[in-house]
Amino acid sequence: MNKRFAFVLLTLVAAASMLLSACGPAATEAPAPTEAPVVATEAPTKAPAPTEAPAEAAIGSPEHPIKVLFVPSVDANVIVTGGEVMAQALNEATGLTFEVSVPTSYAATIEEMCASPSDTMAFIPAFGYVLANDLCGVDVSFKAVRRGWGVYWTMVVVGRDSDIQSLADLNGKKWAYPDAGSTSGFLVPTVMFKEAGVTPGETLEAGGHPEVVRAVYNGEADFGTAFYSPYAAPEGGTKWDRGMEPEVPVDVNSCALNDDKSQLLCEGYRILDARANIREEFPDVVSKVRILALSPDIPNDTMSFGPDFDSELRAQIEEAIAAFAQTEAWKTSLGSEDFYGWSGLEAATDAEYDFIRLMVAESGTTIESLK
Q1: 304: β partners
Q2: Which CB contacts under 8 angstroms, 24+ apart, belong to 37-45?
Q3: pLDDT tens column, 286-303
Q4: Which of 8, 47, 50, 279 is deepest in the core (most CB within 10 A)?
């Protein structure tokens, strides 16, 4: 190869190398390693402590008042008004709070007592007490005293001009009674009729003792059964006793209201049976509705407590209500003749109601049959 040719070849190679270097990718530095991203996190929290159930309010507190139940044997408005007087007196004596109510029936009263065994007290008749005691252990505390009597009676009433003269004449006749849970209005007469061989015809559940008398007065029923309390005799008058005629010993056409309409008087004798409860509506009720017959003695109605009622609270209430019975306010409450007519009360025992238990067994009555 001549020198000229070698020089040209070297020049071409150098030029090519420079050209390739200019066209190639530019050299880059390796990127610095990146740090892992920081994620903000909260510190782990403790599991929330379990919340405690709110403490149950004490029985007798404003948040958990003691229930005071009354059977609807007379006007519910009268019961509530008089019941509130008693509740206020008991509150002042014990510091406990009471809530007065009148269930719709005798059966409903019993069921409420058993449904609330630890916070309920009730004024229930002998029949209702026996059923409640058998059903859930309701316990009697006091029984009513009415003008010295610890017992009362059923009266069978008919229209004054009715031709019904004996129990036997009631066969097939329409019978009005207060409620199937009433001792004097239903249980006792049911047994009386059974023993006398009497089968009433159509029946009318009137809803209360005054309503029974009203049904007979208006001719809606041929006869009715309601409570009998003996009349009060004026000074020097003839006091009623067992075996005597149940009607006042004077002309019944003389009966009329006193000036303030609080009493139904017959020449000074005061009517205290169920007829007196409709005296303002029918002042002539005694001359229109007569007493056909009376039952044997019935133990008076009760003040009873639920089976689980606290013994200390019960003792407080018993002491307070015994004291209340000695006050004038009592006469506007349980002592009112338009209410339950309790002139007083006395301690009662369960055994006193064994007679009623026998009647319940004989009649086959149960709480289910009252509904």
Answers
A1: 122, 140
A2: none
A3: 999 999 999 999 999 999
A4: 279
